[in-house]
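Q: I have 100 residues here and want to know how they pack in 3D. Can you give me a structure?
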Amino acid sequence: MANLPSPAPLTPKQQRDARKAALIAQAEWQRQELNSTLISLEGPSQYLRMGWDGLKFVRDHPVLITTVVAVVTRFSLRTLWRIALLPVKALQMYRNLRLM
């Protein structure tokens, strides 16, 4: 094996360039880590978004939802409407009490 000459010391400019290259490499690695974290978090947020869309659908289509529940559970529509309107009636009673 041949003796290799020892490398010459780095000039200040070469040292700055080396530090800059190391910082760029570190920033790129952190960016990739952040991207992989965001991708792994995207799944749960997608399910939350789907759940929120489902809640908005229920809010916008109460007759359809009540009819489906009545058919599936064999309740009468009248009974289900009474159950569904309980929160509305409770809110009305609360407002009436506050006005007194």
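Q: Anything worth noting?
A: The helical segments are 12-60, 62-73, 77-99. The two ends are 101 Å apart (CA to CA).
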